[in-house]
Design brief:
Chain lengths: 1182, 237
């Protein structure tokens, strides 16, 4: 026989008590493993969703400009691509179009027209389908006039049960029109922004798999996808042979290439000069004698203005050829300021091109007055050409007023401004002998001058290519001011500028977020060709890290990274299951100690036989560690079931927490192993801790056979225990108060909250234990049945304290968590009952009755009480708690002055803020003021965001904290948290000031997100009517209306559902507590069998003894409820104080009554055992 | 009172041993100034009324309890001066116990219970197992070697306990009411076994008992009253 055999024999012999300890260990292990598995399942499911969403798509490129389709072929043919990737394909991709089911085509055959917005359009040839996997390809590709829908889109249109093979279904596709001129520019188109592809026949409905599931953003929601003929879209957009997106992928569906390979892919791509949206033109004007008047290359952009980064790069690359930047702008009016008369902006020359260019040797138009070249044009000066000076009768020294539109519009409204300049000189202008025609430039008999240069103005389709000014396709009318001489000028000189200002002067008034240069002139030089310039520019742009619109997004790598989840679910579940784990451990302690006490005489014998105390401890310790090992193993098995139940719960009862039931159970060996060993470690440590504190009393007493008070446990002295307990209580309360203010992450907040709870409970339980000890020592008081009960409970103070602890833990969990349930409030919506979003930006100003009337016609009257606040929208990931993915590029909303002013009025209901950086006047009263001013370049952009979005999604924990978001199109942006919204409908987005927004995202025009007051109550007729009108009239723009209270409720449902989940865990804790209570009571009865028998012999009636036992049970139960309730109140109060929690007293009271009832019913088990005691047997044992 | 039962060179010397306990009111004195000398080969029964302190005296001799004052020497070694580990080893090697409640581990067989003292500081080698079997044979449990305590009668259990006490060939065997929970026949049987212990070497045996019949089997009887060793009576055989 060996020591180990002894341990093994003992393990088997004491299997009953060991099994009960193992069950306790199993409970802890199950909760721990279950929590880890839920986390693993969440990550696994998100990863599976990501792989389903992307399949073989590893890298994705989408450009603002369209590029030649050859670019894809060139890429595929590179050695690098062949080595590292399997396939590439180009397509035309629109992330946000809308689709309308033609009336009469839905499955019910009714006339209701159904729309779907936020539809992703993919127009491509068959090469694209490789990415979705062969098994998910359509039966055939859509030809012109045909469309394929995915199941989600079909469902949104009410076509889920339609068979396109037998039933003709027609839809209209509405695509955004690509604009050369940004819509927020005064020359940009604001209304005709939609391209309709009507009567497309649905030929197939694809399942939401393969490319049918493809989406750019990490979200568990399936995108709405439509597939159309690329040729049809190219024709409709007038972009034949061009594409705007590129897919690249490897054959390995489950993995993605490393980051360095993606970077090299970027380098392998060789966009051409034209692909960058650049144009080059050799501009040459000769005198009749053949001598050149001007001879240069003009580089311009298809977007009229060149993006700053692009123009800077081009200027640098062409430095050696002395390039000259030019900014040409449209002046609405050019007028001489007559003394005493203030020009009205309409009396001078209408609609003139003014070129901002530095006068130098390279550009020195001849003076019509002196015949000398004009040089050194200063700021504040202007040179008019001969025609304009004559028209206005202007002479050098006159003050000239230029009236023009501000370079950026707000709410679609172009605002006029002016600048007064001094006329420096008049540039000579040669009239042509034959004017311009559509096919031919003007012809000169007399030598033209440098000022005779229409190419100083960039090409603007719809404007510079028109025969008459009247035909200009502009968002404002020009016809009413055009006179015959203006048309004559157009015929003779076309876009030739009528005036010149210095570049600095021009840029000071016309530079905008869209750029500050319209063209770059490169003087013609020997050996310099357009090809050479293009090569130089392309080489520079290609070698730059900027990408200039050609930036690959590593969709799969980013997606897989996002799949790690916003929230570390295992951490969250462990954090909030902490109490259950602690409960289970307390149960382990309780059962283990009971077992040890029961086997005290065994310890006595071993000691008497010569066993060392340490060896005796080892004996019991090893045995119970084996028990823990077996219990943990059992727990891992139960943990799988527990996780399966939790996952099932998240798919059904608690689906509100994750929006869609996408989660599946993922059981991986690593998680199980980690769960097993962590459980074993924690439980083993608990057991070792007990053994360490186990100090057998004198051997003789151990041997005596009495188990009551045989075993002495190392204890703090009573006084010290009370002091430590009191200290812990104070620390916990202070800690809880501090967590409401400290910059902690969401997980840390949860951890700190639970940590405070654990400390508080421990402190209170130490005080209770101390009180029991004192009670046990006190004597001499009048003995009553109640006092007897108290004395009985205090007889084994550790046991009673642990029992109270078990009940208290469950009560705390149930009580504290219920205080964090949320209800929608007016502060969550600021009185705005609707949220409006559009697929395409709109420029409509809802506050302008004339615009509303023009757009809505007869329905405008219904919208008379509609009030809106508009936001610019930079598309991105939903960072709200609705999205379990880790957010990489959250969407950004631009907040304009109107909103800030609205909330300046204290009469207006405001959104609730939980904190704001107090910078600037009036910020405390109206936190939106922090977004009022534009931020200097280089400084972090102040941002307002929801506190939950900040903490959970973006890991921003305190006001003033800076964080960087790397957007694919604009690069890294540094933000600074300037205000935290608290539980509002604005969750999930970043809010920045309008000025900052426009600088950050210059390509974004218009508004896509609105808060609206319908003028009616939620679900009132008025609200319904307003929604219907908006959705119907703005259907082309993909208008979607949502009730903000419903949206807010949905957002809160996530937190509330999590709380429900953890309350269910609290119920589990209660079960453990009840089990513990019953065990202790039964054990007490068994130990006191003789004593109870004696009491009966002394004349105690059975029912009186039963009452005593029940009272003892009630005492522990009430104690547990009281301590748990008190701890919950103390921990919740600081949070309630700052408004993050509210105590639902009624619900809580009912819950506690329920716990009490269950506990007392459990007590009846002990009562029954008491009544079954045989008097004779009990006395004999005594 | 000093009682010298042994030869000039006593193997057990108990000198002026007293034992008292602190209570809330005043110290409770259980043993007062008890002394005893014993040599190998001698056996003695301690008798006295309940609560007289005889078991406490035995436990102090057996090092299970420490005296408040006085000394105990076994073969010249003062066990209470030993460190805990040394004391455990000392007890294991030199003292064997037989308790009123046999205190057999229910999870172990008779043989394993008998081997328990060996396992306290090592492993039961084949030699030890052979000795265990031999002892079991000697106490008349040869047919019960692999039975569990639960399968034995009271007398058999106590005989197994006696075998266990002999396992390490101790110099001193202490028996505390060894027949207290046995019927008359079994008590007689166990008593005879104790007095005629199948030892391999001279051993000292001290038994605490209420039983005059058992006490009568010993060479000497000590009377203890209210914590004081009052008389030593040689038994007439």
């Amino acid at each position: 026989m060996s020591f180990w055999r002894m341990v093994w024999q003992s393990l088997l012999y004491h299997r009953r008590i060991n099994f009960s300890v193992a069950l306790g260990v199993a409970a802890a292990s199950a909760v721990l493993t279950g929590a880890l598995l839920v986390g693993a399942s969440m990550r696994g499911s998100l990863k599976a969703l990501t792989l389903d969403r992307l399949n073989r798509v590893d890298e994705f490129l989408v450009t603002q400009q369209f590029f030649q389709s050859e670019l894809v072929t060139q890429l595929q043919e590179t050695e690098f691509f062949e080595k590292n990737y399997a396939h590439a394909a180009g397509a035309i991709f629109f992330p946000s179009a809308s689709l309308e089911l033609n009336p009469g085509n839905n499955q019910d055959g009714d006339e209701v027209s159904r729309r779907a917005s936020e539809v992703q359009i993919l127009a491509a040839d068959d090469s694209i389908w490789w990415f979705g996997g062969e098994q998910y390809q359509p039966k055939r590709l859509p030809a012109e006039g045909e469309v394929i829908l995915n199941a989600t889109l079909a469902d949104a249109l009410g076509l889920s049960s339609v068979d396109p093979g037998t039933q003709e279904v027609l839809v209209t596709l509405r695509l955004p029109k690509p604009n050369a001129v940004p819509s927020d520019s005064p020359l940009g188109e604001k209304e005709d922004l939609i391209l309709n592809l009507p009567r497309l026949r649905v030929i197939e409905i694809l399942p939401d798999q393969g490319l049918g599931r493809f989406g750019l953003h990490p979200t568990q929601l399936t995108p709405k996808n439509a597939f159309v003929s690329v040729n049809q879209v190219q024709k409709a957009l007038d972009k034949e042979g061009k594409l705007n997106c590129l897919f690249a992928g490897t054959s390995d569906r489950n993995n993605c290439p490393p980051q360095v390979v993606t970077a090299q892919l970027q380098n392998a791509l060789s966009p051409s000069f034209q692909d960058y949206g650049l144009l080059i033109k050799a501009v040459q004007q000769d005198q009749p004698n053949g001598q050149a008047v001007f001879d240069y290359f003009s580089i311009s952009s298809t977007e009229m203005l060149m993006q700053d980064r692009l123009s800077t790069a081009i200027l640098e690359s062409l430095q050696s050829w002395e390039p000259e930047p030019v900014l040409t702008y449209l002046a609405n009016d050019v007028a001489v300021i007559q003394p005493g008369i203030d020009p009205d902006g309409e009396s001078g020359i209408p609609y003139s091109m003014i070129a901002a260019i530095d006068f130098s040797e390279a550009f020195d138009p001849v003076s019509a007055i002196s015949g000398e070249p004009i040089r050194d044009l200063e700021d504040g000066e202007i040179v008019l050409n001969e025609w304009a000076a004559k028209d206005e009768n202007a002479k050098p020294g006159d003050r000239i007023r230029l009236t023009y539109f501000e370079p950026e519009t707000t709410h679609g409204q172009a605002e006029e401004s002016y600048v007064d300049l001094t006329l420096k000189d008049i540039a000579k202008l040669t009239p042509p002998s034959r004017p311009f025609t559509r096919r031919r430039a003007a012809v000169f008999d007399q030598p033209p001058t440098l000022a005779n240069d229409p190419d100083l103005t960039p090409e603007v389709p719809g404007v510079t290519d028109q025969e008459s000014i009247e035909n200009w396709d502009l968002p404002f009318s020009t016809a009413d001011r055009i006179q015959s001489e203006d048309d004559q000028y157009w015929r003779n000189y076309r876009t030739t500028p009528k005036g010149f200002v210095s570049l600095a002067q021009g840029q000071s008034i016309w530079a905008s977020r869209f750029g500050k240069i319209t063209s770059i002139r490169v003087p013609s030089q020997e050996g310099l060709t357009a090809e050479k310039i293009q090569q130089e520019v392309v080489a520079t742009l290609h070698s730059s890290d900027e990408g200039f619109g050609f930036h690959f997004s590593s969709l799969k790598r980013d997606g897989l990274k996002s799949a790690s989840g916003t929230t570390p679910f295992d951490g969250l579940f462990i954090g909030l299951s902490l109490f259950i784990i602690v409960s289970a451990l307390m149960l382990v302690v309780l059962l283990f100690k009971l077992g040890l006490e029961q086997r005290a005489s065994e310890a006595g014998l071993l000691l008497a036989t010569g066993f060392l105390k340490r060896k005796v401890a080892w004996f019991f310790g090893l045995e119970n560690i084996l028990v823990a090992a077996l219990g943990s193993l059992l727990g891992v098995g139960v943990g799988v079931v527990y996780a399966a139940v939790m996952v099932y719960g998240l798919k059904t009862w608690w689906v509100g927490a994750i929006r869609t039931p996408f989660i599946d159970l993922y059981v991986d060996p690593i998680t199980l192993t980690v769960g097993y060993f962590v459980s074993l470690f924690v439980c083993g440590l608990t057991i070792v801790g007990i053994i360490y504190r186990f100090q057998p009393a004198a051997v003789k007493t151990l041997l005596s056979g009495k188990i009551d008070s045989q075993v002495r446990w190392v204890r703090r002295t009573r006084g010290r225990r009370a002091i430590i307990g009191g200290f812990l209580v104070i620390i916990a309360i202070l800690g809880s108060a501090l967590t409401t203010m400290a910059p902690l992450s969401g997980e840390e907040q949860a951890g700190a909250f639970m940590g405070s709870g654990v400390l508080l409970l421990t402190g209170l339980l130490m005080l209770v234990s101390d009180a029991f000890s004192r009670m046990g020592l006190s004597g001499g008081q009048k003995l009553t049945l109640g006092r007897l009960c108290l004395r009985n409970a205090s007889r084994n103070s550790t046991r009673s304290t642990l029992t109270i602890g078990l009940v208290a833990t469950a009560s705390f969990l149930v009580g504290a968590i219920s205080a964090f349930r949320m209800q929608p409030t007016q502060e969550g919506t600021a009185g705005y009952d609707l949220l409006l979003t559009t697929s395409r930006p709109i420029f409509l100003d809802f506050s302008d009755p004339s615009q509303v009337e023009e757009r809505f016609g007869k329905s405008a009257e219904e919208l008379s009480s509609l009030k809106t606040l508009a936001f610019r929208l930079k598309r991105g990931d939903d960072a709200s708690c609705n999205n379990p993915y880790q957010v990489g590029q959250p969407r950004v909303l631009g907040v304009d002055e109107r909103l800030i002013k609205w909330f300046d009025d204290p009469e207006h209901p405001a959104f609730k803020f939980s904190g704001v950086l107090s910078e600037g006047e009036g910020v405390t009263e109206n936190p939106w003021q922090v977004l009022k001013d534009s931020t200097p370049v280089g400084e972090p952009i102040p941002v307002i965001l929801d506190k939950n979005t900040a903490m959970w999604s973006l890991k921003v924990y305190s006001l003033g904290q800076e964080f960087v978001i790397d957007y694919d199109d604009v690069g890294p942006v540094r933000f600074k948290a300037a205000g935290f919204l608290a539980n509002t409908v604005l969750q999930g987005s970043l809010f920045v000031g309008d000025k900052d927004f426009r600088r950050l995202f210059p390509k974004v025009s218009g508004y896509q997100y609105f808060l609206a007051q319908s003028g009616g109550q939620p679900s009132s007729d008025q609200q319904q009517r307003v929604r219907a009108i908006l959705e119907s009239n703005l259907g082309d723009e993909g208008m979607t209306t949502q009730r903000s209270d419903v949206v807010l409720e949905g957002l809160m449902a996530v937190q509330n559902t999590y709380l429900s989940t953890f309350q269910s865990l609290g119920a589990l804790g209660l079960l453990l507590g009840t089990f513990g209570l019953a065990t202790v009571q039964l054990r007490n009865i068994l130990e006191r069998k003789g004593e109870l028998g004696l009491m009966r012999a002394l004349g105690f009636a059975p029912h009186r003894l039963a009452s005593m036992v029940l009272f003892e049970n009630g005492l522990l139960l009430f104690g547990g409820l009281g301590i748990g309730g008190m701890a919950a109140v103390f921990v919740v109060l600081p949070h309630a104080w700052v408004g993050a929690a509210s105590v639902p007293w009624t619900t809580l009271s009912w819950m506690f009554v329920a716990i009490l009832t269950v506990g007392l019913l459990t007590g009846l088990i002990a009562v029954r055992a008491t009544l079954q005691i045989s008097l004779q047997q009990a006395l004999r044992e005594e | 009172m000093f009682i010298d039962l042994g030869d000039a060179m006593a193997n057990l010397e108990v000198n002026s041993v007293s034992r008292s306990y602190e209570t809330r009111s005043e110290p409770l004195c259980i043993l007062k100034d008890c002394s005893l000398n014993l040599s190998l080969g001698e056996n003695v029964a301690i008798v006295g009324p309940s609560g007289s302190g005889k078991s406490t005296f035995l436990q102090i001799i057996g090092t299970l309890d420490a005296p408040s004052s006085g000394t105990v020497l076994l073969d010249g070694v003062a066990p209470f001066e030993l460190k805990e580990k040394e004391l455990a080893l000392f007890r294991n090697e030199h003292i064997g116990f037989v308790f009123q409640d046999h205190h057999l581990l229910p999870q172990l067989s008779v043989l394993e219970n008998v081997l328990l003292p060996v396992v306290a500081h090592g492993k039961a080698t084949d030699e030890w197992v052979e000795r265990g079997n031999e002892l079991i044979e000697r106490v008349g449990l040869g047919n019960r070697t692999h039975h569990r305590p639960g399968e034995l009668s009271g007398g058999e259990r106590q005989r197994a306990a006696v075998a266990r006490a002999l396992m390490r060939k101790p110099k001193l065997i202490l028996a505390d009411e060894p027949t207290g929970s046995l019927d008359q026949a079994n008590a007689r049987h166990v008593g005879e076994l104790l007095v005629g212990l199948p030892v391999d070497q001279p051993t000292m045996l001290i038994t605490v008992t209420h039983s005059r019949e058992l006490a009568g089997k010993f060479q000497r009887q000590l009377q203890i009253e209210e914590g004081v060793l009052v008389s030593s009576v040689p038994t007439e055989h």
